[in-house]
């Protein structure tokens, strides 16, 4: 029998824009034992799908109050591959790609690296819009973040706890 990991936090994230680029939103669902926290936010100005997909795990990881083991699920191959395969090479190359171009969203990649450094994070890719409940909820939260940002015409951050 496998012992449950007491300090495991399972996170699902999503982000997007309508249109891309354009206003955007991000959402995250954090589960720790029986506790659930839903987070969302948005930008009413010009942003991109990739920036919103990056901001979701950043905000979720930064919300954790102590170091824990994290299983982080994203439907963004850009985020998963970036943090697990590309980021160390970009950093080593002075934040330049293999094609000698500046890395896009370097501010968020650096912030994501710092957020990950506090925890033991294992990354998982999930297919979007495939009926995975917490991925669908993260998508709905991202839409809510976008809608609230547009209604307020300023950046928003919201959180719900159950």
Automatic annotation (TrEMBL):
Record's cofactor remark: Binds 1 Mg(2+) ion per subunit. May bind a second metal ion at a regulatory site, or after substrate binding.
Keyword annotations: Cytoplasm, Endonuclease, Hydrolase, Magnesium, Metal-binding, Nuclease
Entry superkingdom: Bacteria
EC number: 3.1.26.4
GO BP: DNA replication, removal of RNA primer
Main location: cytoplasm
Binding residues annotated for Mg(2+) 2, in chain numbering: 14, 139
GO molecular function term, any single one: nucleic acid binding
Cofactor: Mg(2+)
RNase H type-1 domain mapped to chain residues: 5-147
GO annotations of cellular component type: cytoplasm
Family according to the record: Belongs to the RNase H family.
Name this protein carries in UniProt: Ribonuclease H
Native organism: Mycolicibacterium pulveris
């Amino acid at each position: 029998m496998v012992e449950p990991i007491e300090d495991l936090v399972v996170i699902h994230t999503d982000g997007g824009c309508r249109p891309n680029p354009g206003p955007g939103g991000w959402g995250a669902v954090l589960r720790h034992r029986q506790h659930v926290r839903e987070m969302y936010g948005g930008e009413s100005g010009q942003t991109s799908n990739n920036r919103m997909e990056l901001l979701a795990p950043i905000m979720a990881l930064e919300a954790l109050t102590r170091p824990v083991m994290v299983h982080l699920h994203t439907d963004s191959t850009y985020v998963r591959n970036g943090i697990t395969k590309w980021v160390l090479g970009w950093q080593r190359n002075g934040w330049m790609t293999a094609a000698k171009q500046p890395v896009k969203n370097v501010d968020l990649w650096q912030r994501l690296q710092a957020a990950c450094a506090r925890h033991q994070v294992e990354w998982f890719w999930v297919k979007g819009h495939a009926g995975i409940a917490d991925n669908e909820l993260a998508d709905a939260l991202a839409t809510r973040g976008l809608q609230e940002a547009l209604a307020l015409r300023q950046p928003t951050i919201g959180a719900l706890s159950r």
